Amino acid sequence: MIEASATATLPVPAKEAFDVVSDISNADWLPAVRGVRHVGGPARGVGARFEVEAGLVGRHLRGVLMVKTLEEPHLMVLVLEEGLDLTVNVELTPARAGCKLRVEARYSVGGAFGGAVERASQPAARREVARAVEQLAARFGRDDAPRKRAR
Hints:
- This protein has two helices and eight strands.
- By secondary structure, the chain is of the alpha+beta class.
- It has a domain at 2-22 and 67-150: 2-Layer Sandwich (Alpha-D-Glucose-1,6-Bisphosphate, Chain A, domain 4).
- Strand 6 (85-95) and strand 7 (98-108) form a beta hairpin.
- It is globular and about 45 Å long.
């Protein structure tokens, strides 16, 4: 399993940031996501389903992300319904100057060559998660770059 995460401090309260983060219909900031469309369940909240188009390592992928957990204003967990075993956690915690955002993507690839594919995709996954956090932080006018951590 590959994990990639990035964090940033946003200059807004967690509630304000969570309102933006949890609006998946406008979540083209998510790692590797290039397009989002609501396809089932509630428009917001647990059970909401969104078809996503993603681009990673030169491949164009499609799938359905579902909101598995929504604990306002601090946690959202998204899972991919089929294909790649993918979970995206978005956490917000209060900070002195607003709130701290942490996005973590965990995935595994099955099959005979899954381990090799995971290792080969890890640098791109790190870049995509960092890009996602930076893109989201830019919506709130934050200047500094996110800190990265991957395993």
